[in-house]
C-alpha cells in the first residue's frame, strides 16, 4: 500500500514538471513573437509652410465714442425726458433741473447791474463837471481824485454785477441738460426729485451707435513683436464672440498707449471693429487675435505629436519601420498646431497617438488610411 502511494506521488511530480516546462517554453515563444510584432500607429506628416504669428488676448467691447453726462449746475431734477436705451440726437434735452433759483439770480443781478451802471453814469458826469475847475484851482486835487476814484468803484461794481448776471444765465441754461452727441442712453442713475451737484455723479452715459472698439492690454514680453509689426504697416485682428470661435469680426489696431500701465504691467491698446455684428454690446467680453504676419518655412506638427520630458520636448518619428525619438524645441503654437525646431524632414511621419507598449526603436506599422 505504501509503495503504491509512493509511486503515485512520483508520477504526479513528473507530470507537473512536464507541464511547467511546456508552459515556460510557450511563454518564452509568445514573448519572442510579441517582441517582433510591429505596433500599429497613427501618424501625420511634418509640414513645412508659412505659419501665422499672432497674439491672443482677452478684450472688452466699448463704444468708440461715449460721453458721461454730468450736471454743470446744482439743482433738483424736475423732469426726466428720456428712458434707458432710448436713441437720442445731439442737443436733445435729457433732464430738466429747477431753474427758479437761477432766474431769481438773473433778476437780482440785472437790478444790481442797472444800479451800478446808473451810479457809473452819475460819477462820469460829476467828473466831467469838476475837470474844468481843476486848472483854475477852484477845487482841490483831493476832491478831483475822490471823484475819479468813485467813478472807478462804480464801474467795478457794474462789472461784478455783469459777471453775476452771466453766471446766473449760464445756470439757467445748464438747467436743461442736453445730449452732447447722438447715441443710445445708458443706465440712468437719478430720477425726478433727486438733488444733483455741479460736477457730481454721472447721471447717465451716451454711447454712440457707430464704431465699436475692443479694449485690451499687451504683455511687455509680447510688445517687441507688436512694435515690429506696426513698423511694417497696419496691424489687423480677428475678434471672436464665443468660446467656439465660430462668430467673429475683423478689426484694425487704432491705438497703442505710449507707456506701460503700472497697475497691470501691460500696454493698453484698442482695436476698432470693421462692420461690427449686431450682437455686439458695449462691455461684452471677447477674444482678440492680433495678426502680426507669418513665419516662412516653419516646421509644423500637430499638438498631439509633441511629447514632454524633463530633458525637453520630443516627437516619435517613423524611420525604417521603427519608432525613433527626435528631440525638438517648440517656438509657438496656434489652434492645435505647433512650430518646432529640430532634425525633422518635410513629410516625415510623426506619431499622434502613442501606444502604451511603444518603446524607442520598436517596430511600427502605419495604420491603414494614414500617411
Entry keywords:
371 residues, Elongation Factor Tu (Ef-tu), domain 3, OB fold (Dihydrolipoamide Acetyltransferase, E2P), 4 helices, alpha+beta, conserved putative lor/sdh protein from methanococcus maripaludis s2 fold, 21 strands
Question: What would you note in describing this structure?
Answer:
This protein is an alpha+beta fold and 371 residues long. A six-stranded antiparallel β-barrel has the order 2-11-14-13-12-15. Strands 3-10-8-5 form a four-stranded antiparallel beta sheet, with no helix packed on it. A four-stranded antiparallel beta sheet has the order 7-6-4-9. The model is unreliable at 13-35 (pLDDT under 50). Helices cover 31% and strands 38% of the residues. It has four domains: 39-51 and 297-366, conserved putative lor/sdh protein from methanococcus maripaludis s2 fold (Beta Barrel); 55-64 and 210-295, Elongation Factor Tu (Ef-tu), domain 3 (Beta Barrel); 66-98 and 175-209, Beta Barrel (OB fold (Dihydrolipoamide Acetyltransferase, E2P)); 99-173, Helix hairpin bin (Helix Hairpins), CATH 1.10.287.470.
User: Strand percentage, roughly?
Assistant: 35-45%
Please, what is the CATH homologous superfamily of the largest domain? Efflux pump adaptor protein, beta barrel domain
Number of strand elements: 21
Number of helices: 4
Radius of gyration: 44 Å
User: What's the number of domains?
Assistant: 4
Name given to the CATH architecture of the largest domain: Beta Barrel
pLDDT < 50 runs, ≥5 residues:
13-35
Based on secondary structure, the structural category is alpha+beta
CATH-defined fold name of the largest domain: Elongation Factor Tu (Ef-tu), domain 3
- How confident is the prediction overall: mean pLDDT? 84
Q: Helical amount among residues, as a percent range?
A: 25-40%
> What overall form do the CA principal axes indicate?
elongated
Major sheet strand order: 2-11-14-13-12-15
- Describe the sheet with the most strands: 6 strands, antiparallel, barrel
Order of helices and strands: HEEEEEEHHEEEEEHEEEEEEEEEE
* CATH level 1 name of the largest domain: Mainly Beta
Distance between the termini: 73 Å
Amino acid at each position: 500500500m505504501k509503495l503504491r502511494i509512493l509511486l503515485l506521488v512520483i508520477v504526479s511530480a513528473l507530470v507537473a514538471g512536464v507541464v511547467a516546462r511546456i508552459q515556460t517554453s510557450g511563454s518564452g515563444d509568445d514573448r519572442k513573437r510579441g517582441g517582433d510584432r510591429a505596433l500599429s500607429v497613427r501618424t501625420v506628416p511634418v509640414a513645412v509652410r508659412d505659419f501665422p504669428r499672432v497674439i491672443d488676448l482677452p478684450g472688452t467691447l466699448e463704444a468708440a465714442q461715449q460721453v458721461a453726462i454730468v450736471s454743470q449746475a446744482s439743482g433738483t431734477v424736475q423732469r426726466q425726458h428720456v428712458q434707458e436705451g432710448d436713441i437720442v440726437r445731439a442737443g436733445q434735452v435729457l433732464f430738466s433741473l429747477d431753474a427758479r433759483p437761477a432766474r431769481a439770480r438773473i433778476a437780482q443781478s440785472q437790478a444790481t447791474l442797472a444800479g451800478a451802471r446808473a451810479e457809473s453814469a452819475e460819477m462820469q458826469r460829476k467828473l466831467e463837471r469838476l475837470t474844468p475847475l481843476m486848472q483854475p484851482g477852484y477845487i482841490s486835487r483831493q476832491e478831483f481824485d475822490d471823484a475819479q476814484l468813485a467813478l472807478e468803484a462804480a464801474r467795478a461794481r457794474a462789472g461784478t454785477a455783469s459777471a453775476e448776471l452771466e453766471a446766473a444765465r449760464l445756470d439757467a441754461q445748464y438747467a436743461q441738460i442736453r445730449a452732447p452727441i447722438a447715441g443710445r442712453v445708458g443706465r440712468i442713475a437719478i430720477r425726478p426729485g433727486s438733488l444733483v451737484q455741479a460736477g457730481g455723479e454721472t447721471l447717465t452715459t451716451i454711447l454712440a451707435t457707430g464704431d465699436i472698439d475692443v479694449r485690451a492690454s499687451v504683455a511687455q514680453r509680447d510688445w517687441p513683436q507688436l512694435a515690429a509689426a506696426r513698423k511694417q504697416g497696419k496691424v489687423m485682428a480677428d475678434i471672436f464672440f464665443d468660446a467656439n470661435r465660430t462668430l467673429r469680426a475683423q478689426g484694425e489696431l487704432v491705438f497703442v498707449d505710449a507707456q506701460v500701465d503700472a497697475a497691470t504691467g501691460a500696454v493698453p491698446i484698442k482695436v476698432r471693429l470693421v462692420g461690427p455684428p449686431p450682437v455686439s454690446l458695449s462691455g461684452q467680453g471677447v477674444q482678440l487675435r492680433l495678426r502680426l504676419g507669418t513665419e516662412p518655412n516653419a516646421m509644423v506638427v500637430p499638438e498631439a505629436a509633441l511629447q514632454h520630458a524633463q530633458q525637453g520636448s520630443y516627437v516619435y518619428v517613423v524611420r525604417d519601420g521603427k519608432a525613433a525619438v527626435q528631440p525638438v524645441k517648440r517656438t509657438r503654437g496656434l489652434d492645435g498646431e505647433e512650430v518646432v525646431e529640430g532634425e525633422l524632414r518635410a513629410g516625415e511621419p510623426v506619431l499622434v497617438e502613442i501606444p502604451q507598449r511603444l518603446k524607442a526603436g520598436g517596430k511600427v506599422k502605419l495604420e491603414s488610411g494614414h500617411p
